[in-house]
UniProtKB/TrEMBL annotation:
Spans annotated as Disordered: 1-25
Gene3D superfamilies: Metal-dependent hydrolases (3.20.20.140), Urease, subunit C, domain 1 (2.30.40.10)
Protein name: Amidohydrolase
Feature: compositional bias, Polar residues: 1-10
UniProt domain Amidohydrolase-related: residue ranges: 197-447
Membrane-spanning segments: none
Length: 453
């Protein structure tokens, strides 16, 4: 399906400029967008759809022929809708990333990461270890204390320092000493001091330290708390099947997080770590590689969401160069398991949100920022329809933030005016979303950041 390519203006009959209503010192910007096919994020696509935006908010969505009379929208149509690894630092626990000045270098590299992510059509992301990204380039001062954009769960907004340098605080993954978040090859005192100074990760052991860690993250501005409840693949000295944090520690983290209206996300690969996270009340399971029928049943009972992160796993299996042999062995073991268990999760009706664990700042790398939408292809391979996969990437993703979820991810009245236009119908061919060159238009908060020259 071919999609038209001109913008729609609301207001002046000549259509050359947006309508601006001025009352005192207040200026209101209103414009309309029309599309051959409008995909709202949740619900059925709308043929000949239209969206009316006022300032940073969506005011109306529906069939263009039923648009509100007072919009005067004249249709011309429109296409529808971070640590610096790989460049600033090496790919695995580069000790130089713990040195003074490293955050400034990472921040400089990350500006380009954010731009590529935005240009690929991702207006909001959830960042789970380093800093948040509210993807508006005007909020990205060069050299800010930023660590990395994982862009994992692709359409949520907040997480912890690039948000007001972007908005108030580092977010570090909480890890036990010697666990997945620890830098095993560095002196323990250096890792702890770095975490206390604002870096990632943050080590905590015992209930009291776990409570203090949550309060520290909240003080830094975190809107979500990440905890490593299992070992990991890229950490050297632990195993993905290892259980990390006790039941009491996890429950203390969840209870303290929920007291401030926040949600907890769990890095959880092995079954023991997944089940422990679910028992504690964690609603966001990242990776979930050892998911089986028992895990699926408990996830449905608890209303938990799976973020399978297949893109990074498949990419590292194709090219594990640069990693030590123990890590490569874990990659080769995990990926075939995840393929089967992702299929099972979808068959069993587990709720899915798409996330990538994107981490590389080298634009040529397979998991570079801006290639996030590749995750769609794995969701469809596992059994979702293209429309279901798009919903998992848009409408479902903000739900992992619970009460802190922004009004993002849906074209719906009252929601943020974050929209993209693409060069064809992604329900027919996902390449119109997975290839950033096919993303022709991007609006963030009602402001245009990408359009044809």
């Amino acid at each position: 399906m071919r999609v038209p390519h001109n913008t729609v203006q609301a207001g002046p009959s000549h259509g050359d400029e947006e309508e601006r209503s001025v009352t005192g010192t207040t200026t209101t910007t209103c414009f309309g967008i029309r599309s051959d096919l409008l995909i709202p994020g949740r619900g059925q696509p709308i043929k000949n759809g239209a969206v009316v935006v006022e300032d940073a908010t969506i005011e109306w969505v529906g069939d263009f022929s039923n648009r509100p009379a007072n919009t005067h929208a004249r249709a011309m149509g429109l296409p529808r809708p971070l640590r610096g690894h790989g460049l600033a630092f090496s790919i695995l626990n580069d000790s130089s990333s713990y040195l003074p000045g490293a955050p400034a270098l990472a921040g400089a590299v990350t500006v380009a990461d954010l731009r590529r992510t935005l240009d690929a059509g991702f207006t909001s992301v959830r960042e789970l270890m380093g800093f948040p990204c509210f993807l508006n380039p005007t909020y990205l001062p060069l050299g800010t204390s930023a660590w990395r954009v994982l862009t994992p769960d692709i359409t949520t907004k907040y997480a912890g320092y690039l948000w007001p340098g972007i908005r108030d605080g580092y977010l570090a993954a909480l890890s036990i000493t010697g666990g997945h978040g620890d830098a095993h090859e560095l002196p323990l005192c250096a890792v702890k001091q770095f975490g206390e100074a604002g870096g990632a990760p943050y080590l905590c052991d015992g209930v009291d330290e776990c409570i203090k860690a949550v309060r520290t993250m909240v003080r830094r501005g975190a809107r979500c708390i990440k905890v490593c409840s299992s070992g990991g693949v890229l950490s050297l000295n632990d195993d993905p099947e290892d259980r990390q944090f006790s039941d009491d520690e996890l429950k203390a983290i969840v209870d303290e997080t929920e007291r401030s209206g926040r949600a907890v996300a769990a890095h959880a690969i092995g079954k023991a770590g997944i089940m422990a996270a679910l028992r504690a009340g964690i609603k966001s399971i990242e990776h979930g590689c050892y998911l089986d029928e028992e895990v699926a049943a408990l996830m449905k009972e608890k209303g938990a969401i799976l973020i399978a992160t297949r893109h990074i796993q498949e990419s590292l299996l194709l090219d594990p160069s640069g990693f030590p042999e123990p890590v490569i062995k874990k990659i080769k073991k995990i990926v075939p398991l995840t393929r089967k268990n992702y299929d099972l999760a979808i068959q069993q009706g587990v709720k899915i949100a798409l996330g990538t664990d994107t981490w590389n700042s080298n634009p040529e790398h397979r998991v570079a920022h801006g290639k996030n939408a590749t995750e769609l292809t794995y969701a469809v391979q596992a059994g979702l329809t293209p429309l279901q996969a798009i919903e998992a990437m848009t409408a479902t993703a903000p739900e992992v933030l619970g009460k802190q979820a922004p009004k993002s991810g849906q074209l719906k009245a009252g929601y943020d005016a974050d929209l993209i236009g693409v060069a064809g119908n992604p329900l027919d061919d996902l390449v119109f979303l997975t290839d950033p060159t096919n993303v022709t238009h991007v609006w963030k908060g009602g402001k245009s950041y990408k359009s044809p020259a």
